[in-house]
## 1
Amino acid sequence: MKRKRRSKCVSYAKWGYIFLIPFFLVYFIFQLLPLISTFYNSFFENYRVGLMQIGPKFVGLQNYKEILFNSELPIYLKNTFIIWMMGFIPQMFFSLLLASWFTDLRLRLKCTGFFKTVIYMPNLIMASAFSMLFYTIFSDVGPINNLLNSMGLPTYRFLSEVAGARGLIALMNFLMWFGNTTIVLMAGIMGIDTSILEAARIDGANSIQIFRRITLPIIRPIMAYTLVTSLIGGIQMFDVPQILTNGNGNPDRTSMTVIMYLNKHLYSKNYGMAGALSVILFIITAILSVAVFKYVTKDMVNVGEKKVKKAKGV
């Protein structure tokens, strides 16, 4: 009788799980446990008055009611949204413009690698250093005002005007992140099949029509990703306005963001209110992210459903 030879198969699946252990371990210790702790502390009254410690005392949803109905959270949410929009709109415009230029083979641009490096470099600079640089340049006795005075123009107090303070914060966020957004959008555009673009040019479509009718619809998932991540980053905006306005959100707290408001509670050792505010921001961020993603990708889902129905003959 011939013995059946059993082929020895080596399973590498276990190694994949082993390599994932460090990630899950770090995530559990530094993210999941703090998240659970924040949610737990949000139900307690726990703060310090001078040298006296109040609590922890279980108060249920009292911290949430205090923040939602008796605080200035809507004002700080409005400030955050305005500053984010002031930086995000030009960021998307210039990023799309640069990405389309760098990926257009007909232009034959030279030194594209150098320019990509230059526009990405501000993303590598620490936000604190960037903020101190802008604080020095746009101060009342800084180089910009000295230039204005030499031209016979009056001194403009950038950090004492609402438009000036918000504009500087938005400008810094734009400069720090438009390079990263450009690289991401370039990756999406470079993934488009060149035969589609060539066929459109043969049919007589110009560059603007190709960009509007072909490029934008195809890279919509990348744009949705960029929009959601930028929205999350905008809600978490802290370091730039904190340093530029010395933590006060001047003038008259018009540039104070929600994370700066959260930091006030943490600084005052009011852990219960800080925990409740963190949970509320987490819920707001999740709702806005899902809503934006659904809105941006709804046309793609509708087109996919129509193709499925057509294939089934419905």
## 2
Amino acid sequence: MQDAVVDLLDANAEHAREFAGRFDDVQDAQRPAVVSVSCADSRVLHDHVWGNDEPGRVFTCSNIGNRVFQRVDGEDVVSGDVLYPIEHTGTEVAVVVGHTGCGAVTATYDAVQGVLDEPAGIARCLALLEPHLAPGVDALPDDLGRAERINRLVEYNVDRQVDLLLASDDVPDAVDVLGVVYDFQDVYDGARGEVHVVNVDGETAPEAIREAHPALAHRIGRLWTDE
């Protein structure tokens, strides 16, 4: 462990040298344009996904399954880490970032199938996802392999998180909500590491998104188009 920690501290020293002058405008306040909600996965370098090297530009939060909600008194509500920048810093764009080969989606898929053997803390997170993903598991085409089923469920999960944001009274109507999938497994057409837009404000039909948002047209890609 010590070698790993030394490596981290050395990398942080380089970060401090590089970023020393970039905090002047944000030392006392922040007004990020975007809140980005990603899955907690070591292969998803959240800020790097967006090419972000500017403090105060993107408010990032990560968790198992890129969830935008938590359960309070039996009700699903928008998580505080997602809601904070919307409520307090004027952020008007929310992006849900799923990724190919998602372990949380895979485990939830297995849980829906009745196969689950995880410690209590992980099981609790999967239990939050399960009721939202179960209808998608039932709707999957029968002729797909396991990896194909998981990657379609990744999109389905992103869609459900977008829906939860759009349905919440805590999220103003003026907030734009985008759902994307980060691909490092060469599942979509495009370069490895690209983000593919699968949902804009609840619209999932690629042609409809292209028509409404022509600037996004070349970044739209979706596996599951017949929900």
## 3
Amino acid sequence: MRTDDLIKALDADARSTAMPLGSAWWIGAGAATLIAAAVFWLAIGPRTDIATAMYTTRFVAKFVFTMALAVSAFALSRALSTPGAATSRAAAWMVAAPLLVGVAVGLELLSVPAADWGRRLVGSNMVICLSFIPLIGIGPLAVFLAVLRYGAPTRPVLAGAVAGLLAGGLAATFYAAHCFDDSPLFVATWYTIAIAILAALGALGGRLFVRW
């Protein structure tokens, strides 16, 4: 057998046994969720009145926002990890979470006296929010960057930033179960800043570790 034929045969064998990228994303998502859950339960856990809070609209709305971000970012991250894959549809869905939050904030401003806006925006857990969303999300971000590296993103910085949004959405979903501040004004401000920290770290990770 000639050397070229041997190389082609080895390459074909490697491709046939390699895990499909789609499967790697689902396994990565599962691992990231387990990591986030472990950090959440070990570090802070759910709020003491969660059994009552889960019946309130504002509390449930937080999970709608964060899960919308996580799902849309997951779809876009998968698309960005594959060279030549269409990303426009997945990118369009990224407006879902900001749009939902914007609508909720608008309704909040209409229903709450202006004198209460500042108090609801600042809340009581600002520092905890800014600390624990990145803490819960850093492990999942590392997992998602590893999956991106397993793929072949042509825009690694953008892909890393979206992976950070994915990690942030996942982390914020867990953190929302602990947070006593249910106001959309609080969520729109402090959750966004905390998630943006992970997006910035993801962009840096994409630049340093995902390039190929």
## 4
Amino acid sequence: MDSEALATFLMVHRQGGVSAAATALSRTQSAISRRLALLEEELGAVLFERVGRGLRLSQAGEALLPHAEKVAAALGDAVAAVQAAKSDAAGTVHIAAVGTLASSGLAAVLARLRTSLPGLDIRLQTATSAEVSEKVRASDIAVGLRYYEDPSPDLLCKVVHHEQLVVACAPSHPLAGKRLKSLVRLSKERWLAFPQPPRRTEPHAEAIFSQFLVRGVEQVDWSAVDSLTAQKRLVEAGFGLAFLQQSGIAEEVARGSLALIHVADLDVRVPVACVVRRSAFLSRATHALLAELERGEF
């Protein structure tokens, strides 16, 4: 077994099939199939099962996956360490964040970092909390920002911020700017919320609906909207209410395009955790990014 075989295995898993993996690796399908067959022959186990037109990991493949990821991550660390030693350039930092955290506050943090490290290339992508952890674990990115800490032993997590959630509404809403005793008063309203990914949970959405459950409201009328910007625009237009992070709508509230409904029995603060892979090589730029994030000013 060698690193190339494990890299092929990982790519087939991530792309969901041999054809897509071959395209990603700029190889022929026959070369990928042959490399995978040799690895399975060496291990004496089938690593994938066919599902429709795609492939999914077998039980043996599931067992191999974390070890293959660690090998790939270690090789990536080795290359990154050598490149860092060869150059004084700031380099590139890859960061993934839950979409609702990619606000003007985070943009300000990244702008400060780029000012302190001229030439730094920052690559930001958004994902769910679970996907952020997966990307860090697979070494696709160096730093992740997600809701709540991840207990995985492969990851190091630190809570760096708490997001205050508030009830946002259109300025024309009858309750705009009003103070209510309980959230129950809003249980008959139409709500906008992020969709729940299949077989996964998104803590931001869970925190929202749990507020109604603890008050004895088992169902609310809601629509799934997977974009923070879309949620804000729809709320502005009067299509519903939404729980949104206070920092993320400060500009809209200040200019009057969004308003708040103040609820006396509502105080939801969702912890935001910074995630890195345990024992990963962290460049000078990555350390600087972590220091900025740990200030919690976003």
